[in-house]
Amino acid sequence: MIAPRIIARLDIKGPNLVKGIQFEGLRVLGTPGAFARHYYEAGVDELLYVDIVASLYDRANLLHIVESTSRQVFIPLTVGGGLRSLDDIRAVLQAGADKVAVNTAAIKRPSFVGEAARRFGSSTIVVSIEAKRQPDGSYEAFTDNGRERTAVEAVGWARQAVEQGAGEIMVTSVDREGTGRGYDVDLVHRIARAVPVPVVASGGAGTPDHVRDVLTGGMADGAAVASMLHYRYLRDEASVGQAASETLLHVSNRTSSRVAPATVAEIKARVAAGGLMIRPVV
Fold first, then answer.
1. Does position 71 have pLDDT exceeding 90, yes or no?
2. Residue 176 and residue 204: Cα distance in Å, rounded?
3. Active-site residue identified among 46, 51, 88, 130
4. Contact 53/13 with Cβ under 8 angstroms?
5. Measured distance CA(87)–CA(277) in Å, rounded
6. Domain 5-273: which topology?
7. Are 6 and 271 in contact (CB under 8 A)?
8. What confidence score (pLDDT) does residue 250 get?
9. Which of 11, 45, 46, 237 is catalytic?
10. Contact 106, 126 (CB under 8 A)
């Protein structure tokens, strides 16, 4: 059995790490590199960088951030947002990323996934699916951080993406993102059962128990965590300077009361207590 991964998700807008609720009301938290370096030293298994406005503004803006991070951390780094061509993917990989996450370009032209997998290898290509639950219980895939409907059913799209050559699926519940109400375990479970490749769950983690639940009940191979880690890091940093205290105050005013800030070690300990093998924090 392969140990599930705990992944720190860092949403980026311009030069800043940001966080919102359902991708709205974004607040600046700080410098992405500082958070990434802290999580690496704290024992997170992977990092995920997502430029959350790249597709909206038709640009990719992460290369310098990826280059800087790759010189300071030595765990797998996945980068997503605004990757529309093989040249875009090549540039991000050359900057130091290990994997790329594609969404909008893949939805618009599914054969793009196959072209990318053949050029760079399936293990390098992650298809990111942003899904919303529909009144009939199905899930629709969205693009542009949950802003744009596609009329594409999410589970079927996951199957198609893997058939095209995707080596991993990352599924984000737009309904749960940033709320602290827990992952949409049903969504993750449906996709995990439908595809033979690793599935990473994202969106909604508010407690370490939520992480354990999606890895067990959702059959996820990895769990991306943002708010829990970010707010714990800010809280720990607040004692060293007024700027950090002010940032934490602004963020706390919008943070769901359901989010319980936690360290990487605390999350891993809870997952291990649930009977899952986990990579130790060293």
1. yes
2. 5
3. 130
4. yes
5. 38
6. TIM Barrel (3.20.20)
7. yes
8. 47
9. 11
10. no
